[in-house]
Design goal:
This protein is 40% helix and 12% strand. The protein is of the alpha/beta class. Among the domains are: 224-415, Anaerobic Ribonucleotide-triphosphate Reductase Large Chain (Alpha-Beta Barrel); 458-732, Alpha-Beta Barrel (Anaerobic Ribonucleotide-triphosphate Reductase Large Chain). Strands 4, 5, 6, 9, 10, 13, 14, 15, 18 and 19 form a ten-stranded mixed sheet that branches. Strand 7 (266-267) and strand 8 form a beta hairpin. Helix 16 (361-369) runs antiparallel to helix 17 and helix 23 runs parallel beside helix 28 (674-684). The radius of gyration is 26 Å and the shape is globular.
Length: 764
């Protein structure tokens, strides 16, 4: 190699020291099997040139290691991760050795990167104790994908210059310290340590707003925001204003807009006619796109409306690429709402009658809270000659819905009767009218008539997840469940609320959503596949997971008091998800309660619940990468997935690939989603909110490689039969032979893929 001069961080120049590089690469490869330091060196040397900066040299070594990641040599992901760790230490601290925690905190308060309250909450002696507990060697367990996510999203940094001010273990310890700072002084450090250990050992995972924001001056950590619009101009404008405020705070948005009257409806006693919903949906789209999520990416939202809306035929096609900009709204996703009545019309070959919401207000109200009354009023409205209506064959409407869902991938479904019957809340007091961006949150909402309307209700949900891959047996859920419930509950009082309706709702209901990551790995190591799952084992583990979460919140209610609107929950009546699920699920797995439910029911009736909701199975895209886990409950698309992000292409390897390579069932190897849907049915049995359920089809398993509409509708009816609440993405294999993982929002069936990105937070 010819003589190469490098430019150091201070601007000085010196000759490239190959021995120093050699030492760094050997550090990165130390005690890792199946890797070669010389191979990393060789790949790096190819890209060296005179005048390189030290940063460029480090990035070259990282890329050299990352390029070597494959099914045969997966452990280069650890090498690349360690090289990033080395780089981060040099960048954050100017040296490899990490300074004392207290010094880092002081400096970053001075740099206005940390919450200045940290040094008033904790003494120097307490910081010394926390510093002793930090194990920086745990950074060496992070993979390439994990470390890239850390430096791209989670570590505190100057988004303009790119300067990073901390490393992962520092961040995790300070998150714990912030979460538990209000606990009694004589016990809080114990909670901080246990929480830090649990997160840093990949037992529990946290969403993007928490990971990126807690310890800073930013105080909005709820991942999901549900905002319902009324029919008035004041309400529509207030909804748009609330959207802007929360998109700017990294939240993903659910918009309930099904109550807006249809085109041609009268206004002001007949002095004018309504323009219809599309102009107002465009207004909501503008609000979503007007602000970035914490300076990271554009906002994202799902808008919900009922299947019987008079304009539904035009609404179903808003997402596709066939129309003009005047009649398309492509930067929103859509959730279409159904209940039992419409499935009956489909099965019986009858018509669905469409109405303008403004002309059937009582019908709209009971659509959410009383399906039997809805059916009665719906049939009465069909017979009334004074009400505008249109009849459409149910098969045509369902087929149109499924066609758009298949072609766009992003037309979702919500069964509102199941969301209410099998949810946390009493439908007569707090009906569920919508879900969130990613279709796993079911919380009550009320329309705003003004941005500061005290009678409105915006619902927020704060997320977390438990890593099933690190749980040895069902009793192992007890402590992670308690840690997460306590930590997330503290966030509700610590964070700020830009809109009064959100603050009041959160304090009144205190909703949480704890999910699952690494489910595919858990299945693989327990010798089951998605096509042939062990539903009894899944039932047993999910029961324990659900039980310990409910018990943790009940115990917290004994200690700190139940949520203010506890009486509006089914929990206050001693009813748990295991008591309200769709009993058709018993066809899949026999009912066999194993936990102490009777005692818990009595405790709930006596002491109430601290958190009105506790479970929600979110996509968990990013946090899964942090924990080197498979995504949420989803099957992997490849053993080595190539995931796209704004920071480039990341390779992620399934856990324990050497041992379990032949145990994983990949997504596109499944002939149908039926096994996966049966798993979701069993999981939903114990979940008080919803699940981000995806349906995926490989056309290669069908005649002429065309997925029949009958197959799609059968799966849809089956999903309803077993109590499914929401359906999220529709994925279709596009025939690609390379191992590429689509982005978090797959859109594989269109000529021009959409450019918008997913929610920064709901992916966890």
């Amino acid at each position: 190699m010819s003589e190469i001069n490098i430019v150091k961080r201070n601007g000085s120049k010196e000759l490239l020291d190959l021995e120093k590089l050699h030492q760094v690469i050997f550090y990165a490869c130390d005690d890792i099997t199946g890797v070669s330091p010389s191979q990393v060196e060789l790949n790096s040397h190819i890209s060296f040139y005179d005048g390189m900066t030290t940063t460029e040299i480090q990035e070259t070594m990282i890329k050299a290691a990352a390029d070597l990641i494959s099914e045969e040599t997966p452990n280069y992901q650890l090498v690349a991760g360690r090289l990033i760790s080395y780089h981060l230490r040099k960048e954050a601290y100017g040296q490899f050795d990490v300074p004392h925690l207290y010094d880092i905190v002081k400096d970053n308060i001075a740099n206005k990167m940390y919450d200045k309250s940290l040094t008033s909450w904790y003494s120097k002696e307490e910081f010394k104790q926390m510093n002793k507990w930090i194990d920086h060697k745990r950074d060496e367990n992070y993979t390439y994908a994990a470390m890239e996510q850390f430096r791209g999203k989670y570590l505190v940094q100057d988004r303009y210059t790119g300067k990073i001010y901390e490393t992962p273990q520092i961040a995790l310890m300070l998150i714990g310290a912030t979460l538990f700072h209000r606990y009694p002084r004589d016990e809080r450090l114990g909670w901080v340590k246990e929480f830090y250990d649990s997160v840093s050992r990949f037992e529990i995972s946290l969403p993007t707003p928490v990971m990126a924001g807690v310890r800073t001056a930013i105080r909005q950590f709820s991942s999901c925001v549900l905002i319902e619009s009324g029919d008035s101009l004041d309400s529509i404008n207030a909804t748009a204003g609330a959207i802007v405020k929360y998109v700017s705070k990294r939240a993903g948005i659910g918009i309930g807009a099904g109550g807006i009257r249809a085109h041609g409806s009268t206004i002001n006693g007949g002095h004018a006619t309504h323009t219809g919903v599309i102009p107002f949906y465009k207004h909501f789209q503008s609000a979503v796109r007007s602000c970035s999520q914490g300076g990271v990416r554009g906002g994202a939202a799902t808008l919900y409306y009922p299947i019987f809306h008079l304009e539904v035929e035009n609404l179903l096609v808003l997402k596709n690429n066939k129309g003009t900009e005047d009649n398309r709204i492509r930067h929103l996703d859509y959730g279409v709402q159904f209940n039992k009545v419409f499935y009956e019309r489909l099965i019986e070959g009858k018509d669905i009658t469409l109405f303008s919401p403004s002309e059937v207000p009582e019908l709209m109200e009971c659509f959410y809270n009383d399906v039997d009354k809805f059916k009665e009023l719906y049939e009465i409205a069909e017979r009334k000659t004074s009400i505008r209506k249109k009849k459409v064959p149910a098969i045509d409407l369902f087929s149109s819905f499924m066609t758009e869902r298949k072609d766009t991938g992003r037309i979702y479904l919500m069964n509102v009767d199941h969301a209410n019957d099998h949810g946390s809340f009493r439908a007569d007091l707090a009906p569920i009218k919508m879900s969130n961006l990613c279709c796993e949150i079911d919380l009550p909402t009320k329309p705003l008539e003004g941005i500061n309307d005290p009678a409105g209700e915006i619902s927020l949900c704060t997320l977390g997840a438990i890593n099933w891959g690190n749980i040895k047996d069902p009793t192992g859920f007890k402590r992670p469940a308690e840690l997460l419930v306590r930590a997330l509950d503290e966030l509700l009082d610590y964070q700020d609320y830009p809109v009064l309706a959100a603050e009041r709702s959160t304090y009144n209901r205190r909703p949480l959503g704890v999910g699952i990551i690494n489910f595919a790995y858990w299945m693989a190591k327990n010798d089951m596949t998605y096509s042939d799952p062990n539903l009894e084992m899944i039932d047993e583990w999910t029961e324990a997971w659900s039980y310990y979460l409910i018990k943790a919140s009940n115990d917290l209610a004994k200690e700190k008091g139940h949520c203010k609107l506890n009486y509006q929950t089914k929990y206050s009546q001693g009813l748990c998800p295991i008591d309200t699920y769709k009993k058709d699920v018993d066809e899949l797995v026999k009912r066999k309660p194993r936990m102490k439910w009777d005692k818990l029911r009595e405790d709930l009736k006596e002491h109430g619940i601290r958190n009105s909701t506790l479970m929600a199975l979110m996509p968990s895209e990013t946090s899964s990468q942090i924990s080197n886990a498979t995504n949420g409950i989803e099957p992997p698309r490849a053993l080595v997935s190539i995931k796209q992000s704004k920071h480039g292409v990341l390779k992620q390897v399934v856990p324990s690939i050497y041992k379990l390579k032949n145990k994983y069932e990949l997504l596109w190897d499944q002939e149908s989603p039926k096994g996966y849907l049966s798993i979701c049915a069993v999981l939903q049995k114990y979940v008080d909110q919803g699940i981000s359920v995806n349906t995926s089809y490989n056309p290669q398993f069908f005649d002429e490689e065309k997925i029949p509409m009958s197959e799609l509708l059968t799966d849809l009816i089956t999903f309803y039969k077993y109590g499914g609440k929401q359906l999220y993405y529709f994925n279709t294999f596009d025939g690609a032979t390379d191992e590429v993982e689509e982005p978090s929002h797959p859109y594989v069936n269109q000529d021009e893929p959409l450019k918008e990105e997913e929610c920064e937070s709901c992916v966890l």
